[in-house]
Amino acid sequence: MYCPKCGKPEQSPGAYCRNCGVYLFDASKPAESVHWSGENINVPTFVGALRPAVCFISAILLYAVVGWQPGANRIIPITAVILFAMGVVQAQALRKTLSLKKRLKTAALIAHNDAINANLLVPPNFADLVPDSVTSHTTKQLSKNRKS
């Protein structure tokens, strides 16, 4: 394998380049999927909701306590505006997290329902279908053999 950054040959995949130190991705292995259980997703949601609240409250308190005073430095209102903008970005991240959580629950429910339905109804196999004349002939022969 060649390093994609420096081009050094004879590298082992899934390790770091001996020349430049970049991680060499092993493309032969499937990518690991992240499985979110109901317990694990509640913590990021709570922390994600806490971040914009802290940013908004900090911006409001900073401006209300220090920013409006006549002798205050101009950096304080600018910092309050930056904190408010960070709160907006964090609120958007929270909205995306909640949307992802909803999609994951829906996908899990669909997969669960598909698994249940797959066990209930087995699709017919028409490849091994035997014509009615063959089965009736065989049944007649078996009946004759039993009688004799």
Task: Note down, in words, how this protein is organized.
The protein is mostly helical and 148 residues long. It has a domain at 38-118. Helix content is 62%, strand content 0%. The chain has 3 helices and no strands. It has helices at residues 38-67, 75-120, 132-147. Helix 1 (38-67) packs antiparallel against helix 2 (75-120). The relative contact order is 0.07.
Report the portion of residues in β strands: under 5%
User: From N to C, what is the helix and strand string?
Assistant: HHH
Average pLDDT number: 78
Rg of Cα set:
33 Å
Number of strands: 0
Main β-sheet: number of strands, strand sense, barrel status?
A: none
Oligomer: single chain
Summarize the structure.
The protein has 148 residues and is mainly alpha-helical.
What descriptive keywords fit this protein?
148 residues; 62% helix
